[in-house]
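Table 4 source record.
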Amino acid sequence: MSEIMDDYDTGKVLELMDEVIEAYESMIIDGEDKEARRENEIIRCQINAVKFSKDWVAGGGQTDLDGNRACLPW
């Protein structure tokens, strides 16, 4: 994996991220009014951010051109 986290640590982090995703999903509210749509949009953005982070952790992270760990969205 990496010198920062061993496989056990990574597994625990991924489990925690799954719990965070579940918690956010439980916060989605019913309704089609403007406020409900806005709240749900924010929640879905948070879910997507955690999923992106989870993929980054599971993949061992990325490095920039100088070899430093980086989180590149592309």
